[in-house]
Design a protein that fits this description.
Length: about 375
């Protein structure tokens, strides 16, 4: 009616057969076009009725914001105008039939809001315009058919929210492209993307959140440039159960690892950046990395958790341990050593460190000693008798 000036929260919730909303032309707040509800000047789309049966929809030119939702289960294809700047909260939430979203090369889109495409289980691909700066939390969560995310080389993307691509089980690769904008990959951003095989982490990223790639069981390659990466934080369980991952590079600026690579059963090699600032190897950092054959404990490490859920528990192939840390060598050569040396046949330590301490533990535990030059540093090598 002409007198209506506002709606309460979710006024048409569960009106699954509602096909058209018509607004009196004298209403000062709202308008309608083809049965779709807009604000008065049609710059904001407020509601696309759930009961509409059309399979395609062109959002009218001039619309700058979608503030409500287009939840019709009949929609297969939607075209967005160049004027659109914001896809708001839950714009296409649970649009289970939506396969295609057309976004033109001259798009003004700046933000893909929280839950914008949540549960759009038929969506196959999405092209993110150059102008987009934000992908919100759970924006594509549950898009189980989504195979690719297309970013341009000059994209302005700055933020990817938590669980943004959670359970996108068909997503095969994501190339953020080093645009100098993205500084954080949020918690659970790509968790359970079970088809994801390759990820390139931009140099500017300083933080990978907890569980960011947890459960990505096909992830075999994580590209991190050790020479230029600014990464300083890798959250708990960031790569938990990435069972296809064979090699990982940890930049020198990372200071702590905790359950980071738990369950990475194919992990064979861990490369720490030169002059690594790592100080802590915490709870289950490499737990059950059963293919890991060697590890270098960087010189600045002052703490390794020793317990039944220790850092290297389940590393059944760990044979060579190189200890560059003086404080950890003291611990290993004392009483809390079992979980680091449970299967090690060779322990290598800079001779300058070895000469500072009583080496009775290693020398009395069926290890023989020798020396080896690694670069220009002499190492004392403890080798288990019979190995």
């Amino acid at each position: 009616p002409s007198t209506l000036i506002g709606f309460g929260e979710s006024p048409f919730y569960f009106c699954i057969n509602l096909a058209n909303i018509n607004v009196d032309e004298n209403n000062t707040m709202y308008s309608s076009q083809d049965g779709v509800l807009f604000n008065k000047d049609k710059t904001a789309l407020i509601l696309y009725p759930t009961g509409k049966t059309e399979t395609t929809y062109q959002v009218p030119d001039g619309v700058k914001m979608i503030t409500g939702s287009l939840q019709s289960s009949a929609l297969i294809e939607v075209s967005l105008p160049d004027s659109l700047e914001i896809l708001g909260l839950g714009s296409f939430v649970f649009g289970s039939s939506l396969q295609t979203v057309n976004i033109g090369p001259n798009s003004s889109l700046q933000a893909i809001g929280d839950r914008a495409f949540y549960g759009c289980s038929s969506l196959i691909t999405i092209s993110v315009p150059t102008t987009v700066e934000v992908i919100g939390s759970k924006a594509f969560s549950g898009c189980s058919s989504l195979q690719s995310i297309n970013l341009t080389s000059d994209n302005q993307l700055q933020s990817i929210g938590s669980e943004a691509f959670y359970n996108c089980s068909s997503l095969q690769n994501i190339d953020f492209i080093n645009n100098g904008k993205i500084t954080e990959i949020a918690d659970c951003a790509f968790q359970n993307c079970t088809s994801l095989t390759t990820v390139t982490i931009p140099d500017i990223v300083t933080s990978i959140g907890a569980n960011a790639f947890s459960g990505c069981t096909s992830l075999a390659t994580v590209n991190i440039d050790l020479n230029n990466s600014q990464l300083s934080e890798i959250g708990d369980s960031a790569f938990y159960n990435c069972s296809a991952l064979t090699t990982i590079s940890v930049p020198a600026s990372v200071t702590e690892l905790s359950r980071t690579f738990d369950g990475c059963t194919s992990l064979e090699s861990v490369i720490f950046g030169e002059n690594s600032q790592l100080t802590r190897l915490d709870n289950m950092a490499f737990w059950n990395c059963s293919s890991l054959t060697s590890i270098v404990i960087p010189a600045h490490v002052t703490y390794i958790q020793w317990s039944s859920a220790g850092v290297f528990s389940g590393c059944s192939s760990l044979a060579t341990v190189t200890i560059e840390s003086e404080s950890i060598y003291q611990t290993v050569n004392g009483t809390n050593n079992g979980y680091l040396l449970q299967s090690a046949t060779t322990v290598k330590v800079p001779t300058t460190i070895v000469n500072s301490y009583d080496n009775s533990y290693l020398e009395s535990s069926n290890f023989t000693t020798g020396t080896e030059m690694i670069g220009d540093v002499e190492y004392t090598v403890f080798t288990k008798v019979g190995a």
